[in-house]
Fold:
Amino acid sequence: MQLLSQALFNRFSNFSAYLGPEVVKHLEFCISNMDTEWNKAFNFSKNTQFLAECLKTDRDAVQRLCTAAEVKFYGASLIENAQSGSAKSSTYLKPNKNCNLSSWPSGCEPGWACSVGKDTKVDLKNSKDIPLRDIDCQSCCQGFFCPRGLTCMIPCPLGSYCPLAKLNKTTGVCDPYRYQLPPGQPNHTCGGADIWADFLSGKELFCSAGFYCPTTTQKLACSRGHFCRAGSTAQTSKSNLASSLKHLLLPFSDQSVFFANFLLNQCGGGITLVLLIIYNCSGQVLSTREKKQAKSREAAARSARETVQARERWKSAKEVARKGASELQSQLSRTFSRKKSVSQDSTKSSGIPKPDAKGKKKKESNLTKMMRDLEENPDGEEGFNMEIGDKNLKKNAAKAKQLQTRSQIFKYAYGQIEKEKALQEQNKNLTFSGVISIASDLEFSSRPPIEVFFQDLTLTLKGKNKHLLRCVTGKLVPGHVSAVMGPSGAGKTTFLSALTGKATGCTITGSILINGKDEPMQSYKRIIGYVPQDDIVHGNLTVEENLWFSARCRLPADIDKAEKVLVVERVIESLGLQAVRDSLVGTVEKRGISGGQRKRVNVGLEMVMEPSLLILDEPTSGLDSSSSLLLLRALRREALEGVNICMVVHQPSYTLFKMFDDLILLAKGGLTVYHGPVKKVEEYFAGIGIVVPERVNPPDYFIDILEGIVKPSASTAVKFKELPLRWMLHNGYPVPPDMLDSAGVASSSAEDSAHGGANPAAKADSDQSFAGELWQDVKFSVGQKKDHIRLNFNKSMDLSNRKTPSVMQQYKYFVGRLGKQRLREARIQAVDYLILLLAGVCLGTLAKVSDETFGSTGYLYTVIAVSLLCKIAALRSFSLDKLHYWRESASGMSSLAYFLAKDTVDHFSTIVKPAVYLSMFYFFNNPRSTIFDNYLVLLCLVYCVTGIAYVLAIYFEPGPAQLWSVLLPVVLTLIANQEGDTFVTKLGDFCYTKWALEAFLLANAERYSGVWLIQRCGALRQRGYDLSHYYPCLGFLLITGILSRALAFFCLVTFQKK
Structure:
């Protein structure tokens, strides 16, 4: 009997070869490999017991088996019924050769089949003709199903349970199936199964959840410690995930397998514990490293100080010895003869023992020898074991290029600083020649001088015909500290913007010459420092880290690390930031250093790049007098090295005022009142009748006059509105006609003319209609945006002769900086992960896997939740750093390096977040697809939405960007979940949510085989999905992520605000 059942199985086991072309034609979207799917559904080679039982009860069973043509007919009918969309018609077949209106044998009834006759040979491989089968009709064997409208029987697929039906006399239905006995046929009994269809139409055929069916006639309950899904052929261990990972990790150590078990069985608690540790101990990693560096730095500074102190003590001892020797010689001179006295006097003047009369040299004592050596080489290192800061630095082994260890570098830097202090102490009243002397001793790096000359500089607001600056003439000289002062609204910041070429939305007339040549200021941006009015400093970095990063990216690439450290240490020392060098700058949420220290760090960011031109916008605002004095002393030191410094200040103290070399005094409307040496400003104003009263700060008095708060004395014929005109006439500058005309007109008219507030064109504009004004505003806004874009894309030839680090080097520096920032923001990252864990728990619990939809509800929520949470988290990458980027890019740092570094650091979250979410969602939801398939889809989804978040963060302000981040995932997911052939459905084909949802469902649907095959094909046809689209969907997500990043970078360099 076993041989007969095996022969019976062999006859229909290769049906796939004959049904393959038809399946490929109609079901290619849901069946990727016909042979594989056929084996999963009808491979009974492991257990053919139900075939043997069928042959025992019905010797003619082979004659009742459906041929390939009948199986094809049944499948074609199911496809046609599915396309028609009628659920009721899915259980009925079209009329055929055996079952039609004229012929309806009992075998056409559900659960029954007929034979072709014992003597008739049936070719089961015949896929074209349905044989005549209408004799010896009886019920199907168990393990087979006989559909209504066909007179043959088909083996039930694996995962189904097909026992013989029993009549329920109460309902008249053949249990466990749904068909009833035909009326008028008393001899007709309940047969076998009647239909294999989708889960809703033929649910009774599926092996029930909680049970597993090794064969189609055997149904067993799941044992303890296992679970069984609907349609299962075997029970699954609850630790199957861990055991499968064990097989994956067989080549590795036992510890890896143990870790896999721990991670998969205790993933929730383990990940939560790790996140809590990170949340509480994230700062210890960097603080430990900083303490180690601080010890090395303090040791080097202490060594340098001790060396200098030893040198000073030795010089003091030398002076005492010389004084004692002089006194001794004077006493001996009284005793000996005049001749000998003269000889002793010559010896005293030389300080060297004189040879005796016989020509022999007296032996020098050690003290005398050391005195003579120190006198000949006072900066030598003999007797002190000095390693740094000596005059013969080039000749010694401890050169900057030869310094390798951190200790050597710090010793070199602090030695140089201590030497500079000593030389400055010797030359307190430094002159330019003295500075040159110090520079030659200390080998200061030469900086190319930049002299800025501007003539008739005028800025007019486009579309408004309003002057922001007017007829400003003067120059900024290297080595001078120039102060720009004036009342509020005088155009001081506008003046600095015009000099640096950053004024947009304005018409600029006049000329700006750099070193006597008509060249754009942007050509020298690598050696120009611009300190903005706001303190744009990274709050989650220390003072030293902020300065060190700026130095590494902006100093010449060929400078050694030791020299860069020296530059940074020199700036920290000069700005008085030693005490807070290892302190975080701080943010609004987290307190850091004081406001004055933060302001000095803001200035130090530009000082460490050793600029030739340093422009500062109100660097002393908000500082007390001592901090302002300290800052200005540091700037004076920079000026003594030939740096051209121009700064805007508000009412400085008299001490600070006297420290400036030149003064540019502006009146409202951007008109010059005075431009010249600070020493002569009072003399000039006294010449026109404005005398500063005693005990009154001159800058305060001048600004009060320009504001109109203080009026000049009655004896003075000059009005404050005429001061710009007086300056222009005093220097012989050309005066605009309207300013000349305003000299003799009424006060109100003079005010408008003098301050550029009105002109004929402006008066004509005031009569425009509302529509005209609206049109002018629109034109102005568009023109301003065009100017911004043109400025961002305007590439000038680099004339600074400074080669800064390459893009890849800057990329390395940016990655290092961002790594430190992310470590300090580890608490925020931990909160993100905890929220993802919570989302995985909630969605995995609420959205249970539905076998009818392959878990589409859970995946729908997953796409929305992961997109929303990851987008909001990714917004922080660029939204919070816009100001810092604008400053750094304006100074010449690489935008590409900045963007790539941000994206690289975010890749960590892109890799980790899917695993964090799945650790909970997969555990509670338990889909049939593997965790790797789900992780791969989530990885591509997170990569895609992160790129989209970059675009939103860069293009929009933080508020609208967050709104779009919440709105987009919800709307696009709802569009992607639409069914049917509508415009919205076609629109969804271009949404990333559609690709992610399709990939999730395809990965899950592919695991539904055997009895689930028809359900799989029906669900995929309804949604328009295709199994072959799994990898294309992942590819589309990746491509979207790449394109969105390219768009984000374009927005970064195009719509930035300089």
